[in-house]
Amino acid sequence: MAILRLAWRNIWRHPRCSGLTIAAITFAAALLVFMITLQFGSYDMMVDNNLRLLTGHFQVQRAGYLDKPKMRRTITNVQLLAENLRKINGIVDIAARANGFALLASEERTY
Predict the structure, then answer these.
(1) Can you tell me the distance from the alpha carbon of 66 to that of 64, in angstroms, rounded to the nearest whole number?
(2) CA distances from 70 to 58, 59, 64, 66, 100 (A)
(3) CA pair distance 80, 13, nearest whole angstrom
(4) How many domains would you assign to the chain?
(5) Is 0.85 topped by the overall pTM?
(6) Using 50, 70 and 90 to split pLDDT, how confident is the model at 43?
(7) How does residue 21 score in pLDDT terms, banded at 50, 70 and 90?
(8) Inter-axis angle of helices 15-53 and 2-13, to 10 degrees?
(9) Domain containing 16: what range?
(10) Which end of the chain is least crowded, N or C, by CB within 10 Å?
(11) Mean residue pLDDT across the chain
(12) Nearest one of 73, 72, 92 to 82, comparing CA atoms
């Protein structure tokens, strides 16, 4: 208790310095909270935009596709698989997609 009493008296010994220190700590804490909130919001937006543009939250691939990714390694009977997945609670939408690689070349550029 004596330490708290000494600390309290020391704070009010130089009130201008104490007020300035308290204001600086408050400003730094508020800035920190703002920046962390901005950072988490940016992360959420990046993840959401990535999922909307690319594959979504999960992919269903044929067994062995990742070992040898070829366009002919497709899933048979996609409609039946989609119907079974739609029965799972929380799935909003399903899209059957195929990814491939293409190279276009002209005299000026290659895409």
Answers:
(1) 6
(2) 19, 16, 10, 9, 8
(3) 78
(4) 2
(5) no
(6) very high
(7) very high
(8) 100
(9) 2-54
(10) N
(11) 88
(12) 92
Over the Cα atoms of the chain, what is R_g? 29
Name every residue whose Cβ is closer than 8 Å to that of residue 57 and which is 6 or more positions away in sequence: 51
Q: Which two tokens stand for residue 18?
A: 């104490």
Average pLDDT value for residue range 13-35 = 95
46 and 80 both lie in a single domain: no
- Residue 105 pairs in a beta bridge with 110
64: left (phi over 0), alpha (psi -120 to 50) or beta: left
CB atoms within 10 A of CB 10: 10
Q: What does the alpha-carbon distance between residue 24 and residue 29 come to, in Å, rounded to a whole number?
A: 9
At 65-111, the pLDDT tens digits run 888 888 888 888 888 988 888 888 888 888 887 777 788 999 999 98
